[in-house]
């Protein structure tokens, strides 16, 4: 029996879905029935988005009632259904395997993170989509297709933004398990961060910098290393923080992962524990990607206009993402600096300040995060993605009736 529920809102409530309902099939046969009978349809996963990327004027479908499965096949792992990284990581760790990276919170779904190019940090670490090796995608007729690296559509579908159909399974590359030690530091001068980003972001496996763009007392360097606590941060004047850690105006309350001691990769790479509410919760997020080679200039441009958005900012986080070959990935063919903003949950005010940030970053061929708030017009988004026409052509071939298209895809990609 296909269940139904109200479409509700995104994770933090900043966007209420326009869709009339969410359909909840209990197995793949019911999912095929839902898909084949829908004039238009989008997938709702864990709802950790801040725009209308997963919205529809008609129905949404969720895989939350479908059986989940995690299966190791040699050095790859296949996940079926609505599996989150919090669910996946301990399973493969028990088999002595790991993923190359994780996002700042493990609560998000594997398929949803891949679809939007979500990422962790590290100059040598690609986004989470870069671990994808194959996808099972159900098309608008209810038929399932395997799209692997040999398939012509793979570079489009791996970061597919929901345009190719319903992803029912994802196959990821794994590697031998490893331990990570992380520590957060205050006291590193902004001039050292912005003046030598290669050293700051390249000296540990994963580095995040939290800043409010004007108050050095709130700047924080969060380093995650394979070989024990790093000494390079202390060489820059960094001092380890205690249990009471502040991320800008966000005061964490017993929800961050352990610092100062080594532990398995999946318990250290995320900032936030899987059993706790991540970040502030009552927030809006935006994120923009610029070439890492332009990091100094881009950071200076944002800092210059920081007074324009200071009243709405909770904190910014700076991360890095290695280049990939996925056609609409924010890191397509260029190592990227990701400039993230966590805002107060004031929709009108945030949407008013975003154009100022986008204008400041425009000279650096800025790309937005697909799942977060931005106001860039479609022509500006498409201008930096050299394979966007190929993506659109592949998506139209995969979904000739346009069942999986929505206002977001039409507005941003002209699909």
How is the main sheet built?
9 strands, antiparallel
- Tertiary shape: globular
Provide the residue-averaged pLDDT. Answer: 95
Number of domains: 3
Helix content: 25-40%
Number-wise, the strands total 22
Tally of alpha and pi helices = 13
What is the CATH C-level name of the largest domain? Alpha Beta
Low-confidence stretches: none
- Secondary-structure-based class equals alpha+beta
Distance between the termini: 33 Å
Strand % is: 25-35%
Query: Any idea what the CATH architecture of the largest domain is?
Result: 2-Layer Sandwich
CATH topology of the largest domain: Alpha-Beta Plaits
Radius of gyration: 20 Å
What would you note in describing this structure?
The chain has helices spanning 28-37, 85-93, 110-116, 154-157, 190-195, 197-202, 232-235, 265-268, 295-309, 347-361, 378-383, 388-398, 407-413, and strands at residues 3-5, 21-24, 41-43, 59-61, 69-73, 76-80, 97-98, 132-138, 144-148, 166-173, 175-176, 179-186, 206-211, 220-225, 239-240, 246-247, 250-251, 262-264, 283-291, 313-321, 336-344, 367-368. The chain has three domains: 3-61, Uridine Diphospho-n-acetylenolpyruvylglucosamine Reductase, domain 2, CATH 3.30.43; 69-177, Uridine Diphospho-n-acetylenolpyruvylglucosamine Reductase, domain 3, CATH 3.30.465; 179-381, Alpha-Beta Plaits, CATH 3.30.70. It is α+β, with helices and mostly antiparallel strands. The model has no long low-confidence stretch (mean pLDDT 95). The strands form five sheets. Strands 12, 13, 14, 15, 18, 19, 20, 21 and 22 form a nine-stranded antiparallel sheet that branches. It is globular and about 60 Å long. It is 25% helix and 25% strand.
């Amino acid at each position: 029996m296909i269940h139904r529920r109200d479409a509700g809102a995104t994770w933090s409530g900043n966007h209420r879905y326009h869709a009339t309902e969410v359909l909840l099939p209990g197995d793949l046969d019911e999912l095929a029935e839902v898909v084949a009978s829908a004039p238009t349809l989008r997938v709702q996963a864990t709802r950790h988005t801040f725009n209308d990327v997963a919205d529809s004027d008609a129905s949404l479908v969720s895989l939350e009632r479908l059986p989940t499965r995690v299966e190791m096949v040699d050095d790859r792992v296949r996940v079926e259904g609505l599996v989150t990284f919090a669910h996946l990581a301990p399973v493969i760790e028990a088999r002595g395997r790991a993923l190359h990276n994780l996002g700042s919170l493990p609560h998000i779904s594997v398929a949803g993170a891949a679809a939007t190019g979500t990422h962790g940090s590290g100059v040598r670490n690609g986004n989470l989509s870069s671990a994808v090796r194959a996808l099972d995608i159900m098309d608008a007729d209810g038929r399932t297709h395997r799209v692997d690296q040999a398939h012509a559509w793979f570079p489009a579908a791996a970061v597919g933004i929901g345009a190719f159909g319903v992803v029912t399974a994802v196959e990821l590359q794994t590697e031998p398990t490893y331990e990570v030690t992380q520590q957060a530091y205050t006291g590193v001068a902004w001039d050292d961060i912005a003046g030598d980003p290669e050293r700051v972001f390249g000296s540990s496996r994963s580095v995040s910098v939290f800043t409010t763009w004007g108050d050095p007392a709130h700047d924080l360097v969060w380093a995650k290393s394979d070989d024990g606590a790093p000494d390079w941060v202390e060489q820059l004047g960094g001092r380890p923080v205690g249990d009471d850690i502040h991320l800008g105006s966000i005061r964490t309350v017993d929800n961050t992962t352990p610092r100062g001691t080594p532990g398995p990769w999946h318990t250290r790479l995320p900032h936030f524990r899987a059993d706790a509410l991540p970040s502030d919760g009552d927030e809006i997020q935006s994120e923009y990607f610029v070439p890492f080679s332009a990091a100094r200039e881009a950071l200076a441009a944002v800092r210059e206009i920081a007074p324009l958005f200071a009243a709405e900012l909770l904190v910014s986080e700076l991360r890095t993402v290695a280049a990939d070959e996925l056609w609409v990935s924010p890191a397509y063919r260029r190592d990227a600096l990701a400039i993230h903003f966590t805002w107060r949950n004031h929709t009108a005010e945030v949407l008013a300040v975003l154009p100022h940030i986008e204008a400041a970053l425009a000279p650096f061929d800025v790309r937005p995060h697909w799942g977060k708030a931005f106001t860039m017009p479609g022509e500006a988004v498409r201008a930096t993605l050299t394979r966007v026409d190929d993506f659109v052509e592949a998506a139209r071939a995969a979904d000739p009736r346009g069942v999986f298209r929505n206002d977001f895809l039409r507005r941003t990609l002209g699909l």
